[in-house]
Predict the 3D structure of the following.
Amino acid sequence: MLYRELFNKDVISKNFNNDKLSHALFGKQTYPIKREKINVEKGEFLIHENELHDSIYLVVEGLLSVRKSLHIIRIVGKKNFIGFDSILGNENSFFTVEALRDATLWRFSKMDVICKLMSKQEGLFYLYNEMKSINGHLIQQNMFLRKSSKTRILNNMILLGKQYGEENSKFITLPECLSKQIIANYSNATQATMRVICKQLSNDSILEETHQLMINKSRVKEYKNLAMLL
């Protein structure tokens, strides 16, 4: 493979994504490492900001919020890794991580993960791709902040629904644990603003509120100035 093909961004994304990283960490042929499956209850904290922790986590089931101070900056779920932001053993965590619903995770030692990846010639690319994914998410959220509250909230609901909810030909349904309060925080909006926007979206027949939030896809498409992700 030519150099420019080996280091092509699409090749790296395909060959060093989360699935490939999981496979590498579970592999037993080169530098096998220990792992432990743990359960975290809803409301329980996995990591606290500004505290040392020595683990990398892989989400098996559940949803967790990643907060900086009191602001939610990411929602992570199945096949997402947690802890790469402070991969070195002597770093304090940048974030607080809390379970939004009961979750199951694999826990690895940071030292084992680093040694495992550094034992592989291509190990650096796994770290690069993980940090690139986190950075891409933050850039997208920064772009949303430049939009109106209505656009920002709607697109975050679409994004979270597509990633962690259910989607059919008519609706995108968000998980029940992603309440309006959580989405308001994630969208950098007050709860009062969130209530007003949800009422507007309901009046436009875009949002249906039962015990879960549901986005009407056909109605969203009629508001092309609002929807960036559908």
Observations:
- The mean pLDDT is 87.
- Residues 46 and 97 are 5 Å apart (CA to CA).
- The longest helix spans residues 123-145.
- The first strand starts at residue 36 and ends at 40.
